[in-house]
Design goal:
Chains A, B: It is found in: Cytoplasm. Chains A, B: It is an enzyme of class 4 (lyase). Chains A, B: Keywords: Amino-acid biosynthesis, Aromatic amino acid biosynthesis, Cobalt, Cytoplasm, Lyase, Metal-binding, NAD, Nucleotide-binding, Zinc. 2 copies of one chain form a homodimer. Chain A is of the alpha/beta class and 362 residues long. Chain A folds into 2 domains: 171 residues, 3-Layer(aba) Sandwich (Rossmann fold), CATH 3.40.50; 183 residues, Dehydroquinate synthase-like, alpha domain. The first copy, chain A, contains 13 helices and 13 strands. In chain A, strands 1-2-9-6-5-3-4 form a 7-stranded mixed β-sheet, with helices on both faces. A two-stranded antiparallel ribbon of chain A has the order 7-8. Chain A has a two-stranded antiparallel sheet with strand order 10-11. The longest helix of chain A has 21 residues. The radius of gyration of chain A is 20 Å and the shape is globular. At the A-B interface, helix 3, strand 7, strand 8 and strand 10 of A face helix 3, strand 7, strand 8 and strand 10 of B.
């Protein structure tokens, strides 16, 4: 098992990464002094991991209140959030009752937001069960829900007390979900860690085969990168925005296709190809490195062509993206593999060329 | 004009209290560097004060996006909150676009919560236009909405950048609203400021006649008391809970009658009488002081008898109150006028006696 710490002064917290952590009561119990917790999960994860977690907790006298939500990004909205509040209130959960998120990024984001806002804030614990959630959404305190007009438009920065990334839970993940997580893993190499990118080029087949050692290494190194960025810039006033590589395009794909049609990681993959292509058109990234990036995403089985929404629709969808300052879209782009920058100075014509060249034509 | 500071380190902010502040652009402009602001108000306040505020802002090149909500506590819910989000998104408001709350406590609480959660947090400015909001809800950073199962159950701690308490706006307040605000003013005297309570006994008629000097003094002294409490305990881990004197009973009245049937200040008045009565039954507060408290509320024209909900209904409603720890109701009670304490040790029989003695019988 690996242990990392996200250093945020009085809001610092540990991330544990390893196998069979759902059975490790000693990692959870220090955070459950009142012997009661609400566990938020979904209809897919509940049959797999709710009973094991319940058994671990009950063996130490902790009473669990299960809250089981419908599965899918299309349910990451105010209505489903209301189901969490309803359950917490009907069970009379109090200010000291922790919420445990047991599931992927959607469960983590919604549970974290419920924890941030129920009774103006209750303790929060993350047990991510997808690769994407383990390397990205469960670390860093971004919580929230979608709005019909944009993804993650409603939310809060709210840090968990502890994160348990149990690699064993990845064995039940579909290949598609595993690949979607790898998209975010590749991202860390691209924005700030060339040698990790090279490691991924050498070990992609092991990751796809779910080799436990390779997974533990990739998750740990991803979380290290994210923890460093978040510790330096918790509220995304600067460097943290680099983590959004591929996300401006990716969110447009997700919103344009309807939440849930594309997995977040898939949209980020196609979006990252667009960001690399635009960086190349700006003369920053070499053609060779652009192809190298595309090659790694292809080997991971991820989409490298965005869906056929049409250029105007893409531009409109990006106009509503959160990462807009003073009416200009700010892109995360690449100077090289391992070095991302933010730029608001992109000629509209280059952007159009990128959108045309990297999306399907229906 | 009086100026106070709420001392919360990097979240400290000024409160300005005086006449005709809506025309004082110099108080607002430092907080509007991007020349754009969304103003959230309601159908009652908009015809009175939206145009004056717009004129002040426009004269300095600040573009205002008005968001006008239905008026009343019954609209302080997720649905109305959604109207704010919808407007912010359709106007493409960005992370640096401040939200200005122009109205009473409901507008302030909802706008603050929208500011805390839109794009994970945008700047927030309070312009309270009721006495209640000026002395209570606009200071201290509590924001939120109601849930059908309880008041203020969903929310966040989120501090404004500045508060403008314009006494001139109180001239259009109904007598009933003015009195509801006075209930919270009296509360500050009761919990921690005996000499202010005595000042109120001597100046109640001036306040009811809306004497500007008396109002400015009462608002300033109330805000001073609140600012001291909040600076010492922003997140209500201790002393801040004393500000809830009368609120455990009061919230039960509001929830039991349906939001909006009783004004918050009216419910707090009847609830404070219950708290004083219970303190008296516990042998803490003298009968003489209990009568003195009731007398001042009566002189302010406030209800001193709670509605006829029945004892069992009151107990049930209080069981869902946020101020519950370990299944016990914690009451804010009085040791004397000017000295409040928190106690979880109230014999159920005394509580029943208080509920019977101080509520109407239908």
């Amino acid at each position: 098992m690996q242990t990392l710490t996200v250093g945020l002064a009085e809001r610092s917290y540990p991330i544990y990464i390893g196998s069979d952590l759902l059975g490790c009561a000693e990692l959870l119990l220090p955070h459950l002094p009142h012997k009661r917790a609400a566990v938020v999960t979904n209809t897919t994860v509940a049959p797999l991991y709710l009973d094991p977690l319940r058994a671990t907790l009950q063996a130490h006298g902790v009473n669990m209140i299960p809250i089981i939500l419908p599965d899918g990004e299309q349910h990451k909205n105010a209505e489903t959030l209301g189901l969490i509040y309803d359950a917490l209130l009907s069970h009379r959960c109090e200010r000291n009752t922790p919420l445990i998120a047991l599931g992927g990024g959607v469960i983590g984001d919604m549970t974290g937001y419920a924890a941030a806002t129920y009774l103006r804030g209750v303790p929060f614990i993350q047990i991510p069960t997808t690769l994407l959630a383990q390397v990205d959404s469960s670390v860093g305190g971004k919580t929230g829900i979608n709005h019909p007009l944009g993804k993650n438009m409603i939310g809060a920065f709210y840090q968990p007390q502890v994160v348990l990334a149990d690699i064993t839970t990845l064995n039940t993940l579909s290949d598609q979900e595993l690949r979607a997580g790898i998209a975010e893993v590749i991202k860390y190499g691209l924005i700030r860690d060339l040698s990790f990118f090279e490691w991924l080029e050498q070990n992609m087949e092991k990751l796809l085969a779910r080799d436990a050692d390779a997974l533990q290494y990739a998750i740990t190194r991803s979380c290290q990168n994210k923890a460093e960025v978040v510790a330096a810039d918790e509220r995304e006033n600067g460097e943290r925005a680099l983590l959004n590589l591929g996300h401006t395009f990716g969110h447009a794909i997700e919103t344009g296709m309807g939440y849930g049609a594309w997995l977040h990681g898939e949209a980020v993959a196609a979006g990252t190809i667009m960001a690399a292509d635009l960086s190349c058109r700006l003369g920053w990234l070499s053609k060779e490195d652009t192809d190298r990036i595309r090659g790694l995403f292809e080997r991971a089985g991820l989409p490298v062509i965005a869906p056929a929404l049409g250029v105007e629709k893409y531009l409109q969808l990006m106009g509503l993206d959160k990462k807009v300052v003073g009416g200009k879209i700010r892109f995360v782009l690449l100077k090289s593999i391992g070095c991302a920058v933010i730029s608001g100075d992109v000629q509209p014509e280059l952007l159009r060329q990128t959108l045309v060249a990297n999306s399907a034509h229906g």
